[in-house]
Amino acid sequence: MFARLTRLALSLAVLAAPLAAPLAARGAEAPPIQYRERVLENGLRVLSSVDETTPNVTVQVWYGVGSKDDPEGRSGFAHLFEHMMFKTTRNMPSETLDRMTEDVGGFNNASTWDDFTNYYEVVPANHLERLLWAEAERMGSLVVDEAIFASERDVVKEELRQRVLASPYGRLFALMLPKATYQAHPYKRPGIGSIAELDAATIDDVRAFHEAYYRPDNAVLIVVGNFEPAKFDAWVDKYFAGIEKPQAPLKRVTAVEPPRTGPGVYRGYGPNVPLPAVVLTWLGAAADSPDAPALKVLDAILSSGKSSRLYNALVYEQQVAVEVMSTADLPQQPGMIALGAIMSSGESVETGEQALLAQVARLRDAPPSEAELNEAKNELTAAELRERETVDGRAFALGYAWATEGDPAAANENLAALQAVTAADVQRVAQKYLDPQRRMTITYRSEDARPEGETEAEEAPPAVEAVRYEGDIVTLAPEGEREAPPPVAEAISPTLPKPAETTLANGLRVIVARSSDLPLVSGALIVKAGAWADPEGQAGAMSMTANMLPEGTATRTAPQIAQEIEALGAVLSASAGLESSSVGVTVMSDKVAPAFAILSDVVRNPAFAAEELERQTAQALDALAVAYEDPGQLAAMTAAPVIFAGTPFGHAADGTPASLQKLTPDGLRALHGTYFRPDNAILVLTGDISPEAGFALARQAFGDWQAPSAPLPPQPQVAPQAQRKVVVIDLPGTGQAAVRLAKPAIARGSEAYYPGIVANTVLGGSYSARLNQEIRIKRGLSYGASSSLSARRTTGAFQAQAQTKNESAPEVMDLIAAELDKLGATPAPPEELKARKSVLVGAFGRAMGTAGGLGGVLGELALQGVPLDEIAVYTARVEAVTPDQVRRFAEAHLAPEDAAVIIAGDFSAFEAGLRAREPDLTVIPADQLDLDSATLRAVE
Question: Please, which pLDDT band fits residue 940 given cuts at 50, 70 and 90?
Answer without folding.
Answer: low
